[in-house]
């Protein structure tokens, strides 16, 4: 990893994070990080996020036991979005689904 890369945080001091299973490449969830969550994730190897609703840091899996062990951190070309490749220790979604993206819209466009 290029240590000199720094995420560009938005006006609220947050950067969006896509979390993906490093083996299956399934997109598991999307969350937000502030600088402290990013630092803790890099230091511990466990995914930490910023909860906008609770206005607090949270360690993914702290209450459920479904931790996200970080294998790799990537940053996009604009340096304003992070991708975490993880080894999940259980479902990512609070509903018990492997991914938070388990629902699908019916397609409405030209068919």
CATH class of the domain at 18-88: Alpha Beta
- The main sheet orders its strands as 2-1-6-5
Low confidence ranges:
none
The count of DSSP E runs of length 2 or more, i.e. the number of strands, is 6
Can you tell me the CATH superfamily of the domain at 18-88?
Phosphoribosyl-AMP cyclohydrolase
What is the CATH architecture term of the domain at 18-88? Roll
* SSE string, helices as H and strands as E: EEHEEEE
Overall, the morphology is: globular
Question: What does the average pLDDT come to?
Answer: 93
If helices are DSSP runs of H or I spanning 4 or more residues, what is the number of helices? 1
CATH topology title of the domain at 18-88? Ubiquitin-like (UB roll)
Largest sheet: 4 strands, mixed
Helix-strand layout with pairing:
Elements: E1 15-21, E2 27-33, H1 35-44, E3 48-51, E4 56-59, E5 68-75, E6 82-88
Parallel strand pairs: 1-6
Antiparallel strand pairs: 1-2, 3-4, 5-6
């Amino acid at each position: 990893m290029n240590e000199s890369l720094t995420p560009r945080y938005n006006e609220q001091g947050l950067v969006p994070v896509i979390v993906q299973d490093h083996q299956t490449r399934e997109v598991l969830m999307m969350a937000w990080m502030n600088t402290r969550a990013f630092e803790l994730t890099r230091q511990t190897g466990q995914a930490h996020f910023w909860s906008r609703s609770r206005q607090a840091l949270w360690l993914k899996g702290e209450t459920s036991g479904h931790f996200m062990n970080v294998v790799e951190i990537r940053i996009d070309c604009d340096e304003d979005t992070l991708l975490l490749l993880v080894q999940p220790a259980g479902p990512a979604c609070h509903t018990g689904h492997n991914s938070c993206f388990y629902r699908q819209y019916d397609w409405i466009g030209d068919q």
